[in-house]
Specification:
Number of domains: 1
Bound molecules: guanosine-5'-monophosphate
Distance between the termini: 28 Å
Radius of gyration: 17 Å
Strand content: 25-35%
CATH architecture: 3-Layer(aba) Sandwich
Number of strands: 9
Oligomer: single chain
Length: 191
């Protein structure tokens, strides 16, 4: 794929995907900027990056390589209680951290923040474990539908209120493997 210019939607995604919103190059530039910020802000603090599966998988892989200070990584996996509860903020912890975070400088890495309810739950859970600091970085932010105010230390992009896929984000578990960010066709997800 060319490093610049319009990116072509691959055949396997053309049924559902309408257009490219952010190119792979734009995404990688934002990750480089966030990585440089983390390297600067957390120097001498041995931070733990906590990535939220599954959507943050490509992001954490690229972000780790954009950080040039000592850093640890750990993962949590969560799920809402079924589709109807998606915006209820009731979240189930499917996989907990491997290591304790008491006294550590913890930076939660999210793929996308929409209402903020999922992240609110995650932060509440992690705060109980008494980290030294607890902050958040997200690649994609959709401020239009925010229900809880959460301070964000690092933001890659503010997005319009559209359902997006690619770069880790799915539509019924598909399209996480697109290296760029796309919007779905309006008929697929109501615009
Ligand atoms: P929140 O709790 O902030 O409303 O939602 C967070 C979760 O909803 C994200 O981690 C993600 O799984 C899902 N989500 C929110 N907006 C989008 C979107 O535009 N596309 C996709 N694929 N998932 C989204």
């Amino acid at each position: 794929m060319a490093a610049s210019g319009p990116e072509e939607i691959p055949a396997f995604a053309r049924d559902h995907v309408a257009s490219v919103l952010l190119s792979a190059e734009e995404i990688q530039a934002a990750i480089a900027r966030i990585g440089a910020g983390i390297s600067h802000d957390y120097v001498g603090r041995d931070p733990v990056l906590v990535a939220v599966l599954k959507g943050s998988a490509p992001l954490i892989a690229d972000l780790l390589r954009a950080i040039d200070i000592p850093v640890s990584v750990d993962f949590i996996a969560i799920s809402s209680y079924g589709p109807s509860a998606r915006n209820s903020g009731v979240v189930r912890l499917l996989k907990d951290l491997d290591q304790p975070i008491e006294g550590r400088h913890v930076l939660v890495i999210e793929d996308i923040i929409d209402t903020g309810l999922t992240l609110h739950y995650i932060l509440r859970t992690l705060r109980l474990r008494r980290p030294a600091t607890l902050e958040v970085g997200t690649l994609f932010n959709k401020p239009a539908r925010r229900l809880v105010n959460i301070p964000l230390r690092y933001v890659g992009f503010d997005l319009p209120d559209r359902f997006v896929v690619g770069y880790g984000l799915d539509y019924h578990e598909r399209y996480r493997n697109l290296p760029f960010l796309c919007v779905l066709k309006p008929e697929v997800y109501g615009g």
